[in-house]
Design goal:
By secondary structure, this protein is mostly helical. Helices cover 76% and strands 2% of the residues. Helix 1 packs antiparallel against helix 4 and helix 2 crosses helix 5.
Length: 181
């Protein structure tokens, strides 16, 4: 089995997962936008089924959506990095280094896990922004799901990106093994 034969199926899985997450946001956004802008009994902006809460003139849910985007955005970088550090530490501390195929398979599983965590955090913020719009918050709250969608789409896994990431992690592992000797 070649190196590429190990990578290609995992990349395809990550692409399917990422596309599904993006599709879920886009489809929910389509429903929310239809409900928000349709003339069929929809409430006027600011007059949703649940009256939007206002605090000091600021729409509360929209503000919460922005805060969630910032918090989840930070977590989307910090949490996967922490997961990766722990896994690299465990791999480098192994008494017998794994075979290249086993190491690649392990790193690919870590890459998939960290990618899903990254995307899921942005997905949560996107849905928060869409729910805020759905209940009558201002249209500018669409910036939240727009930014979240952009961040997920920008991380879309490709063979080149995953191979580059793997090479970087292999170098990190080698350095960690040298440092521990």
């Amino acid at each position: 089995m070649t190196h590429e034969d190990l990578i290609r199926p995992r990349v395809r899985q990550m692409q399917i997962i990422t596309a599904a997450l993006l599709q879920g946001i886009v489809l929910f956004a389509a429903v929310v936008l239809y409900l928000h802008f349709s003339n069929k009994g929809a409430a006027a902006p600011g007059q949703g089924a649940i009256a939007p809460a206002q605090a000091a003139g600021l729409p509360v849910l929209s503000s919460m959506a922005v805060a969630m985007l910032v918090a989840c955005g930070a977590a989307a970088f910090l949490v996967p990095a922490a997961i990766l550090r722990g896994q690299v530490r465990a791999l480098s501390a192994a008494r017998l280094p794994p075979s290249p195929e086993s190491q690649t398979a392990h790193l690919l599983a870590v890459r998939q896990t960290t990618h899903i965590v990254y995307c899921a955090l942005f997905e949560g913020a996107a849905f928060m922004g869409l729910v805020a719009l759905m209940i009558g918050e201002p249209v500018w709250v669409l910036a939240v799901p727009g930014i979240a969608l952009g961040m997920i789409a920008a991380s879309f896994p490709t063979m080149g990106r995953v191979q580059s990431w793997l090479e970087q992690q292999r170098q990190t592992l080698e350095q960690a093994r040298r440092d521990s000797v």
